Amino acid sequence: MPRSSEPEGLPIRMLHDRVLVSIDHDQGDRRSSGGIVIPATAAMGRRLAWARVSATGQHVRQVQPGDRVLFDPEDKAEVEVRGEEFVLLRERDLHAVAAERIEGHGTGLYL
């Protein structure tokens, strides 16, 4: 299946092993197992973030546009394209991928 290296409507082509992602902004407050609300601003150590892949370079092998990926938000380079915020990562900086095409994993995650 050919994959698009350009997000729909964006005049950009990713190079090498780069992955362009848009961060999921619905990661707000969380609840503990006891029902206590934990604000998104609470300091809780290092927390990874989910994002959706918008574009990939020609040497990216494990993810495709549309996949959700897990990455460390401390190691990111932000870029704005036509007023939209994106994060530029290397494929090796991704910790996991969640996609419908991944089979044989009960959680849908490829860790």
How many H/I helical runs? 0
Structural class by sheet pairing and helices: mainly beta
Which sequence of SSEs, written as H and E, runs from N to C?
EEEEEEEEE
- Separation, N- and C-terminal Cα atoms: 23 Å
Instruction: Extract low-pLDDT stretches.
Output: 1-5
Strand % is 35-45%
CATH-defined superfamily: GroES chaperonin
Helical coverage, percent range: under 10%
**CATH topology term:** 10 Kd Chaperonin, Protein Cpn10, Chain O
What is the second-level CATH architecture?
Roll
Describe this structure in words.
- With 111 residues, the protein is an all-beta fold.
- It has one domain: 10 Kd Chaperonin, Protein Cpn10, Chain O, CATH 2.30.33.
- It is 0% helix and 37% strand.
- The protein contains no helices and nine strands.
- A seven-stranded antiparallel sheet has the order 6-7-1-4-5-8-9, with no helix packed on it. Strands 2-3 form a two-stranded antiparallel ribbon.
- β6 (77-81) and β7 (84-90) form a beta hairpin.
- The protein is globular and about 45 Å long.
Which terms would index this structure?
111 residues; 10 Kd Chaperonin, Protein Cpn10, Chain O; two-stranded antiparallel sheet; 0% helix; disordered N terminus
Brief digest:
With 111 residues, the chain is mainly beta. It contains no helices and 9 strands. The protein has a single domain, classed as 10 Kd Chaperonin, Protein Cpn10, Chain O.
